[in-house]
Design a protein that fits this description.
It is a single chain. The protein is of the alpha/beta class and about 120 residues long. The chain has one domain: Spore Coat Polysaccharide Biosynthesis Protein SpsA, Chain A (Alpha-Beta Complex). The chain is about 10% helix and about 25% strand. It contains two helices and seven strands. The strands form two sheets. A five-stranded mixed beta sheet has the order 4-1-5-7-6, covered by helices on one side. A two-stranded antiparallel sheet has the order 2-3. The longest helix is centred in the first third of the chain and has 9 residues. The mean pLDDT is about 90.
């Protein structure tokens, strides 16, 4: 599974932090938001989807800023809001159909199985 952390408009407004690094690279307690997401999903982040201002972001140990690939990928993809503070494992994800993930009724992510394009208008 490819874990991609997504900076939405709210996250991109967290200035000055959002001008220097993807929000997933911010420390929240002892761990970055990216590390918390990786623990909760059992995967490793392969990229950050964020503002084009951060296109050249390069920090040791951190995944790069990438373009959102909305086509049918050859791997399962989990687009997770970088604002999610995951303290426990996420519930089981469906295997064959895209699914929206919610936390307390708010959009938190999108599961897209391999071979499936990202549904229009969701990212």
């Amino acid at each position: 599974m490819d874990l991609l952390l997504y900076d939405d408009e709210v996250a991109r407004g967290w200035r000055p932090f959002a001008l220097t690094r993807p929000i997933g690279e911010l420390m929240f307690g002892a761990y970055t938001l990216r590390a918390r997401a990786a623990r909760a999903t059992g995967g490793e982040a392969v990229g950050h989807i964020t503002s084009s201002v951060l296109a050249g972001f390069d920090e040791p140990g951190a995944p790069p800023v990438v373009e959102a690939d909305l086509g049918a990928g050859d791997r399962n993809r989990l687009f997770l809001s970088s604002r999610v503070v995951a303290g426990a494992p996420l519930p089981a994800l469906p295997h064959e159909t895209p699914a929206l993930l919610q936390v307390e009724g708010q959009w938190a992510g999108l599961w897209v199985p391999s071979g499936t394009p990202v549904p229009q208008g969701l990212l």
